[in-house]
Amino acid sequence: MAFAITQTCCADASCVSVCPVNCIHPTPDEPDFGTTDMLYVDPATCIDCGACADACPVDAIFPAGDLTGPLQVYEEINAEFYTGRDVLAEATVAPNFHRWSPPAFGRVLPSDFAALDVAVVGTGPAGMYAVEDLLLHTNSRVTLIDRLATAGGLIRYGVAPDHPSTKKIGETFARFHDHPRLRLRLGVEAGPELAERHDAVIYAVGATEARRLGVPGEDLRGSLPAATVVGWYNGHPEIAPGAVDLSAERVVVVGSGNVALDIARILTASPESLAGTSIAPAALARLKSSKVREVVLLARRGPADAAYTRSELLALAARGDLVVDAHDPRVAAEIDAGEGKAGLLRGVPREEVDWSSPPPDGGRRVVLRFHSSPLEFTGDTEVRGVRVTGDVEIVAGRVVRAAGFRGAPVPGLPFDEATGTVPNTAGRVEPGTYVAGWIKRGPSGGIGANKACARETVGALLEDAVAGRLRTRRRGLLRRA
After folding, report:
1. Global pTM?
2. Residue 212: how many other CB atoms lie within 10 Å
3. Are 378 and 229 part of one and the same domain?
């Protein structure tokens, strides 16, 4: 019985490295790695050893025959990735084995390589993958710093509380907090003087600012950035417990990426289903008295090219409360043609919605409206609606702007306002100063994408150390946040 990778795949390739028959793809050295929604097991090659399931940090891999309910479809999804592939042509030992790439050693450190003192700023995935690389593959001493009093970054405050398997990767990272060569400093603001007491500093501070839409009314009361809503239900210490008002019957979410789907799913979930998760108690209490009955997701593109991943849409559709707005004949045509992600919506009800009226009576629901961009948030002092493509106004009392994130300037480092990143080459800002994660490459890629990103950055750091390009250390101070 073959194994199959399911919804919560983090794509960090931990499973790839332990597979004895190289049956999990794409691998980090293949061109489509980082571009697919997840990794996939080839059922024709898998020998059912279970090594991948043991290595998976987010419990996403199971025997295909054991999958039940909404996860059953992942047996087919894994197999579909290999449809049309000439597996026999890739075989070396036997037809059941994919071809292995020749061994490659990207790093070679001299035997007398001196221990480095490295500071890593940020305890999210990018920072922790950098820490893991430094502690496991070098003799470096690491100071891990975060301005918040709780470690975790994106894992703790960005992953939806109803995704406990995804959050579990935080346990994998946390095991390094007690490493004998690591010093953990929480609640500390890292300033430019940090470089004075370390050989090198890696900034992995993420992308925390909301991307502006540039439409009239964007700053009206009742218009919130996605980061506020996500931080609110995850209990972020800088987001007030009452930051999200749920007194409106209809909420419009601008965007159709995974964050937008997370927000729609949480706002329409039954509070009972969220009890026992990591959701903030104040958020759960407010959801119990919520008046929200409908969340509308505005997607600029059509269903074939929507921004969400296949797995996240399948999870939302499995609840049975998803509706597609049939306002545009192109939507039905794309879904019926089944191209790209559109085919996933074939069984979802379609409805021409009267946006001038309140949501229908009954339970809560999520409406997907494709080929629709916001033109204006209407209202005098508070949001009353959203005028969208086609000059249609959707009456709504709240709007969440989930059109993406951008990085914020880091004191003492150069900053590119256009991209919201710190200019760098392979993570190197200058010898001794480095970046990793979203502040390095922009807000793209899931959790696992940060592993290769951090490895590249650590590689640049080690290259500078071997070449003698790191500055001489001086004593300095850390500022308590």
Report:
1. 0.92
2. 13
3. yes
